[in-house]
Automatic annotation (TrEMBL):
Gene3D superfamilies: 1.10.3730.20. The chain crosses the membrane at residues 12-32, 38-59, 80-97, 103-121, 128-144, 156-176, 188-210, 216-236, 248-266, 272-288. It holds the Pfam family EamA. It is a multi-pass membrane protein. GO terms for cellular component: membrane. Residues 10-143 form the EamA domain. The keyword Transmembrane helix applies. It is found in: Membrane. Keywords: Membrane, Transmembrane, Transmembrane helix. The keyword DNA-binding does not apply. InterPro entries: EamA_dom (IPR000620), EmrE-like (IPR037185). This is EamA domain-containing membrane protein RarD.
Amino acid sequence: MDNVADRPLAGIVLRLLSGILFSGMMVCVKAVSAEVPLGQAVFFRSAFALLPIVAFMAWRREFPAALATRRPAGHLMRSGLGAAAMFASFAAVARLPVAEATLLAQLAPVVMAVGGVVLLGERFSRHRAAALALVLAGVAVLVVPELGDGQERGRILGYALGVLAAVLTAGALVTVRRISRTETPASIAFYFVLATTLAGLATLPLGWTAVSGSTLVLLVLAGLFGGAAHICMTLALRYAEVSRLAPFEYVALIWPVLADLLIFGLPLSSGFLLALPLVLGGAGLAALEGRRVRRPLRQ
C-alpha cells in the first residue's frame, strides 16, 4: 500500500485543486437552480462525473477489474445515503449563498466522528466533544439571527437542508469506512456516481425542462467538475495525511466566498463570518481525531 505521507506537497496541491473544482460545481448548480428541476440537475452532475472517473480508472488500468465487489449491500447503502445527500445539498445551495452551503457541508466530519462512536463503538474523546460543541455553536450563530424574520423561511429551509446533507454525507462516509476494508476507492466512487445518476433519472416523470445551450453547458460542467474534484481529493488523501490537509479547508472556502461576491452579487452575512472559524475549527478537530484514532489500526 502507498505511503500516505510520501508526497505531501502533491497532496496539498491536489486538495487545493479539489476545492476549486468543488466550488465550480456548486456555482454551476446554483446558476441553473432557478431553471432546472432538482432531479435533472442531480442526473447531469452524476452522469457526466462518470467520464473523468472512468477515464482515471482506465489510466490507472483499474477498469473494469476494480469494479468487482464483495459488498454489494454496502455499496447500496453508501450510494443511497450519498444520493440523498446530493439531493439535499443541491436543494440547499438553491436557497443559500454558495459559501454558506459549502460551510454547512463541513459539518460532515464532526457528524461522522459522532457516528463512529454510535455505530462503530469508537471512544467519545474530549477532541470529539470539543469538535461537536464548536460546530453546534457555529450553526447557532449562522441560523439563529434568521429565525426572527418571517420572510426568511426559504433561507431557514436551506439551512435545514444543508445540515441534513451533512448528516447524510457523514452516514455515507461511515459506510465507506466499513466497506473500504475489502472494496477499492475506484469501485466505491463508480457505484456511488452510477446510483446518483439513476436516482436523478428516476425523477424524469416528475417533469424535466428543456434547457438552453448555456444551461446545458453549466450542467455538463457541474458533472465534470464534480468527478474531477472527487479524483483530486482521493489522490490528496493518498499523498498527504489528513492532519496536514486540514488547514487547507480554510483556503477551500475562499472560492465560494468569491463566487458569491463576484458572480452572484451576494454579500457575506455577519452570521457566516462568525460561524466560519467555529465550524472549520470543529471540522479540523474531528479530522485530526479521526486520524489519531485510525493510526494504531495500521500498525
